[in-house]
UniProtKB/TrEMBL annotation:
<feature type="transmembrane region" description="Helical">
    <location>
        <begin position="66"/>
        <end position="84"/>
    </location>
</feature>
<keyword id="KW-0472">Membrane</keyword>
<feature type="transmembrane region" description="Helical">
    <location>
        <begin position="221"/>
        <end position="242"/>
    </location>
</feature>
<keyword id="KW-0812">Transmembrane</keyword>
<feature type="transmembrane region" description="Helical">
    <location>
        <begin position="181"/>
        <end position="201"/>
    </location>
</feature>
<keyword id="KW-1133">Transmembrane helix</keyword>
<feature type="transmembrane region" description="Helical">
    <location>
        <begin position="35"/>
        <end position="54"/>
    </location>
</feature>
<feature type="transmembrane region" description="Helical">
    <location>
        <begin position="151"/>
        <end position="174"/>
    </location>
</feature>
<protein>
    <recommendedName>
        <fullName>ABC transporter permease</fullName>
    </recommendedName>
</protein>
<feature type="transmembrane region" description="Helical">
    <location>
        <begin position="105"/>
        <end position="126"/>
    </location>
</feature>
Length: 247
């Protein structure tokens, strides 16, 4: 008489669950990665046209920075808010836990923003090589950032992109936990905190010290270290919130 053994299904590890989240969020990765660049491309063409028109009607041959690049940071960050608010319910319906979903989204955020940072660095180097696209226009440069080696430049793009993305993830986690009212409450709290900070600095006449902090801190530290602390805090708070998120 033969006996048959029942084989238990292998337990899915944490790494396996996170890999599942990465595959799930990879479905719309093409849209999430391309749409910000399409918008930035349109902004770039408008700036080129304006810059050319100004230079054609003026004798000023100076170089300047448009400042339009900052829009890309928030456009990219907003795409991860969509991921948190729209993809998370479907992921939970497939048996993925909240913490594994959140961890997977953070990993994808880190990877995709790194790709954006490398692309921005390449375009910045091309901009410098062409003397501002032949117009002495600084589009991919930030006026206060001096020329850096490519590795530091990638970090100075990547960490701010990462930190802004984590803030949008935090808003998405708050939305999944408390809904629209929670998002508004968090936004109001942020405005009040900023207002109190401005009030305190003004009251203490500490604006010169604030100015010395920004001008005296090396740019790589200012853009690649301090925002990383903000990103870590946002990820930690978002994790605590998302663990009790509603489907």
């Amino acid at each position: 008489m033969s006996t048959s053994t029942v084989t238990e299904p292998p337990e899915v590890t944490t790494g396996g669950r996170i890999a599942t989240v990465l595959r799930l969020t990879g479905v719309d990765a093409r849209v999430r990665m391309s749409v910000p660049w399409l918008i930035l491309g349109a902004i770039f063409l408008v700036n080129v046209a304006i810059w050319w028109a100004v230079r054609a009607s003026s004798d000023d041959g100076g170089q300047g920075t448009t400042g339009a690049l900052t829009a890309l940071f928030f456009i990219i960050g907003s795409t991860y808010l969509v991921t948190m608010t729209q993809t998370m319910p479907f992921a939970l319906s497939l048996g993925i836990t909240r913490r594994h979903f959140y961890a997977g989204v953070v990993v994808r955020l880190a990877g995709e923003t790194l790709v954006h940072a490398v692309a921005l660095t390449a375009l910045l180097l091309l901009e410098r090589a062409t003397d501002g696209w032949g117009l002495r226009m600084g589009f991919f440069s930030l006026g206060f950032v001096p020329p850096l080696n490519p590795l530091l430049q990638v970090l100075c793009f990547w960490v701010p992109l990462l930190s802004i993305g984590t803030l949008f993830l935090l808003f998405g986690a708050v939305f999944r936990r408390w809904g629209q009212y929670g998002v508004w409450a968090l936004a109001v709290a942020g405005v009040l905190a900023a207002g109190l900070a401005v009030f305190w600095v003004t009251w203490q006449s500490a604006w010169p010290a604030v100015g010395r902090f920004f001008t005296g801190t090396p740019v790589p530290v200012l853009l690649a270290v301090h925002p990383l602390v903000l990103a870590a805090v946002a990820v930690a708070v978002g994790y605590l919130v998302v663990r009790r998120a509603r489907v």
